[in-house]
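Retro notes, item 3 of 5
We never archived the inputs for the nicotinamide-adenine-dinucleotide complex last cycle. Fixing that now. Sequence and ligand:
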Amino acid sequence: MHVCVVGLGYVGLPAAALLAGAGLSVTGVDVNPVVLAALARGQVTIQEPGLPEVVATSVAAGQLCGAAAPVPADAFILAVPTPVRGLAHKRADLAAIEAAARAVAPLLRPGNLVVLESTAPPGTTERVLRPLLEQGSGLVAGQDFWLAHCPERVLPGRILDELVNTDRVIGGIDTGSAAAARDLYATFVRAGMFLTDATTAELVKLMENTNRDVNIALANEFALVAEHLGVNVWEAIDLANRHPRVQFLRPGPGVGGHCIAVDPWFVVNAAPGFTPLIAAGRAVNDGMPRHVADLVADALGGLSGRTVLALGLTYKADVDDLRESPAAGVITHLRHEGATVRTHDAMVEDGTPVADLAAGADCLLLLVDHAAYRDLEPVALAPRMARRLAVDTRNFLPLAPWTAAGFSVVRLGDGRSR
Ligand SMILES: NC(=O)c1ccc[n+]([C@@H]2O[C@H](COP(=O)([O-])OP(=O)(O)OC[C@H]3O[C@@H](n4cnc5c(N)ncnc54)[C@H](O)[C@@H]3O)[C@@H](O)[C@H]2O)c1
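Structure as it came back at the time:
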């Protein structure tokens, strides 16, 4: 069986490699020549544990190759980006799905399967993808070819494991399409596969990420409440989570990434009159970078002329992905208000050691809790800094060694530390 995977990013490339590893012949398609050049050498351009090895093996075995445009195949998987556009009210940009559909449609043959893996607004498979494929091929979905949506649930950093071992929701435009998609994923998935219709599968994916976004917003809102009341939200959350039916998520400087900060907008736009809670959650999370900048300004007594060393630029810990990262918003606010901001990210190539960047800084601002930052040595940093101040947005820096080294530590959500 020959599978054509369109879009070789965090989702498409691991899926392509696993299909190839399962013995299928896989062509990976991307519009980015850098991605294709790397693949031709058996290499990858994204950081994901285990991925370089499985890609190298599949390419060396001749099971996986790259191409700049789709080729005829038995099955097509579309794993292209679905970003949002706009500032306050964000709308889905489906241009990549539409381009991929237009490229695949003329190649479709009776009996083929097309699976949309990209996260998309409810109805995209039925109302956007289906007509493009039918018009471009002259075939009828559900009659001549199969069409399904199979959303990805993977966690960056554990993608290969979760692709195999996490339950999948598979939504067909009809039962035959769902069954055909299940048979394809059965080649490498070792978890449950639950069949439904395409629009339900789209909504399920959006519900999952919206659940996290709204619950992070709730934690963030309590962080603000705790600061107002002089309470430590981290302690309060630990205690609340001792209730057997309560599970708070963790506050932070905002929500980023390609999914959780984006997908709730697909729901809000699909049902604007019915989603005040989801929209409010987005607003709370989008307001956190402003709040973090205010925390730093308060701690420093103003930002003008101050130097801040920001640690962590990615959208979350231990990934190299900068998309929609709230750290960027924090840094923009700080710079806009007159601070000089030096940046460091343990997961993104930089080269300059934290100790060098700390020289003369007035504040060390921890934005991302990368495991590598466990190795920070407050005793070594203290004498280099102009002022011994640390602002910790993730409750990450262990208080005892930092205060022993002379640092004042201000924690997001900790009204006692201000
Ligand atoms: N990254 C995640 O953790 C994750 C998890 C679940 C779902 N998703 C969803 O999966 C989809 C893909 O996300 P990603 O993180 O893999 O994106 P990505 O940006 O890492 O990769 C997408 C790739 O598609 C390529 N591309 C763009 N347009 C193309 C086209 N017309 N033809 C061929 N290739 C094209 C890009 O060059 C890029 O290499 C998105 O809808 C995203 O929301 C992502």
